[in-house]
Amino acid sequence: MKKVCAYLSIMFLLLAFVSNGAFAQDAKAATESGTESVATATETEESATMNAADQEAAPVAEKQSFHQVLKTKYIEGGVGWMTPILICLILGLGLVIERIIYLNLATTNTDKLLQKIEDNVKAGNYNAAKDVCKNTRGPVASIFFQGLDRVDNGLEDVEKSITSYGGVQMARLESNMVWISLFIAIAPSLGFLGTVVGMVQAFDDIEKAGDISPTVVAGGMKVALITTIFGLIVALILQVCYNYLLSKIESLVSSMEDASISFMDILVKNRK
User: Fold this and answer.
1) Domains identified in the chain, total number
2) Which residue, 194, 192, 186, is CA-closest to 223?
3) Is there a single domain that holds both residue 190 and residue 239?
4) Which phi and psi angles does 125 have, rounded to 5°?
5) pLDDT tens-digit profile of 162-196?
6) What are phi and psi of 77, to 5 degrees?
7) Is residue 76 domain-shared with residue 188, that is, in the same domain?
8) Do residues 86 and 207 both lie within one domain?
9) Are 32 and 147 part of one and the same domain?
10) What backbone phi and psi angles, to 5 degrees, belong to 211?
11) What are the residues whose beta carbons fall under 8 Å from the beta carbon of 216, sequence distance 6 or more?
12) Are 108 and 191 members of one domain?
């Protein structure tokens, strides 16, 4: 009986020892697993933070000002081809600005001018009417001065002088418009010429490399496309300015014709 009790006691101790060992191993494994999970979570958070920082920093690094982008494309298009196009733009805009200033100075309040001339003509003071025309800028006043200067020769001479000098003033209004139209034609032509040269360069590169690949063709194609784009942009800008100037000239010519008719009516009503 004592042997049985001792045997049971030994078995109970062994079972308790094994159970404690297994529990300790499970606890250790759980602890290690928890540590690895925390480490993995920490690494994931750090990676996400770094990715977010990279995503935020990437646009800042890639973002460029319009001036920088324009400068880069200018260089990529080839300085030899982009410079003539740029010169066309500068000269064309210079002529456009000159014409705008001239046409604005040529604009005259014809109603006010005609009223002053009529008052002096009614009073028979033609010299005062001439002084009014001298002190008034614009082609309309110049035409009226030429007409008043020939009043003594008859209305037919006045009408002829107005018609002839009106043609001279119209030619002055349209001065430099031919050059603007020339630059409108040259700018895209230079762009297309750069396109042809770029294509030839691309085929030369293909022949040298003996292979048709995007890397080989990209350089020549880039020159071709960029020069064409810039040439068309310059032509569009100058074309818009050219049409504005034409509308301004047409308005001034129409005003000159209407004022000339009114001027002749004043002379006819108050002729000697």
Assistant:
1) 2
2) 194
3) yes
4) -100, 80
5) 888 888 888 899 888 999 999 999 999 988 888 78
6) -75, -15
7) yes
8) yes
9) no
10) -150, 140
11) 202, 205, 206, 209
12) yes
Q: Please name the residue ranges forming H helices in the chain.
A: 2-62, 66-76, 79-106, 110-122, 126-134, 139-148, 155-173, 177-209, 214-269
Q: What is the DSSP letter of 151?
A: G
Q: Same domain, yes or no, for 263 and 151?
A: yes
Provide the domain limits for residue 116: 70-269
Q: What is the DSSP string of 230-255?
A: HHHHHHHHHHHHHHHHHHHHHHHHHH
- Domain limit, last residue, from 44, 63, 82: 63
Whether the model pTM is above 0.90: no
Q: Are residues 31 and 93 in the same domain?
A: no
Q: Positive or negative, the Cα torsion across 110, 115, 121, 125?
A: negative
Q: Name the CA radius of gyration of the chain, rounded.
A: 45
Tell me how far apart the alpha carbons of residues 265 and 200 are, in angstroms, rounded to a whole number.
Answer: 67
Tokens of 174: 């349209």
The pLDDT tens digits of the residues spanning 142-169 come to: 899 988 888 888 888 888 888 888 888 8
Q: Are 95 and 183 found together in one domain?
A: yes
- DSSP 3-state of 206: helix
Would you give the DSSP letter of residue 137?
-
Sign of CA dihedral 148, 150, 152, 156: negative
